[in-house]
Amino acid sequence: MLRKEFRIILLSLLVSFLLTAAKFTAYFLTHSVAILSDALESIINVVAGAFASYSIFLAGKPRDENHPYGHGKVEFFSIGFEGAMIFIAGCLIWVKAAQYFWGESQLREVTQGIWLISATTLVNLFLGLYLVRVGRRLSSITISGNGQHIMTDVYSSLGLIVALAAIHFTGWTWLDPAVSVIMGGLILRKGYQLLRRSVSGLMDETDMQVVDRVIQILRAHRRDTWIDVHNMRVQQYGNNYHIDCHVTLPYYLELSQAHDELKAIEMLVNREFPNSEVEFFIHPDPCIPACCHYCQLAQCPVRSEAFTGKITWKRENVLPNRKHG
After folding, report:
1. Is 240 found in the same domain as 313?
2. CA distances from 135 to 154, 279, 287 (A)
């Protein structure tokens, strides 16, 4: 699968390089600062694509003694690097726009610029949609992040086309730097979002969507011997996950029986994450009398309290480090 990811990101890199060349051609024809802004963002697509190619190559390396969880964390460095480059591009665009506000406009050949940017936008649209779809299917944050960035480029290019058309028909050249300022703001926002995602991944911030998905899977296939699940922690390494949790089991189970129960949990979740590897470190907790009132094991030989009701598993009782009830 990683070889496929590598081929996809190389395709993105090649297309982005060709589109960047086309956008700079449009800039030299028109001298439009708004087109220059679009071209600068495309340079980031090329740089980010190159870094993403390396990160996918590195993420595909097997675990070793120095990296017992694999090399998947490099993907968070990849989107962080891309976010930083986008942020810098946004700042450069604002600087260039400010210079054009105070200088004399040199716009020319606007019609040719419109056609060139329209062509690059169409190609980018197909590429971005393809990368987002494949990235989700392969659970690759690098491919998905690259696709989202390209889709942002598409939206800004559409706004640019509208602005160039308005300039062509009205002669309002002040629209050129004004649109550039708006595009710079959108680019800065996207750069911040990617940086935020990178930092959260490197700091092992909990992805609540993954937590909810794991809880839903366990809840749907819950066994009576799984009295409760608590102290759950989820870490992401590329498109793989490492999950720590405690599972309360009947205290009288033999070691082999407890092992089978925990193995069933690991196999169950991995089956529901077909494009990822989910590694579990599960700590078995013995039940205590306080668990009896929500334990659903009808034939329990040591029950000391009557069953009063099932406790639904959710974030509020699965994440804290304590037994339910």
Report:
1. yes
2. 18, 21, 42
Per-residue pLDDT of the chain (325 residues; tens, 9 = 90+): 456 777 887 788 888 888 888 988 888 888 887 787 778 777 776 776 677 677 667 666 666 667 666 666 666 777 777 778 778 777 877 877 776 666 655 677 788 888 988 999 999 899 889 988 888 787 676 677 778 778 877 877 887 788 888 887 887 777 777 777 887 787 788 778 777 777 766 666 677 888 999 999 999 999 999 999 999 998 877 667 889 999 999 999 999 999 999 999 999 999 988 877 888 999 999 999 999 999 999 888 899 888 999 999 999 999 999 988 6
Cα–chain center distance at 325: 35
Which CA distances in Å does 276 have to 14, 59, 86, 197? Answer: 27, 13, 29, 19
Structural domain boundaries, residue 305: 208-318
Do the Cβ atoms of 218 and 269 come closer than 8 Å? yes
**Whether residue 133 is found in the same domain as residue 252:** no
Does the pTM exceed 0.70?
Answer: no
What CATH number does the domain containing 60 carry?
Answer: 1.20.1510.10
Q: Of 167, 202, 237, which residue sits at a domain end?
A: 202
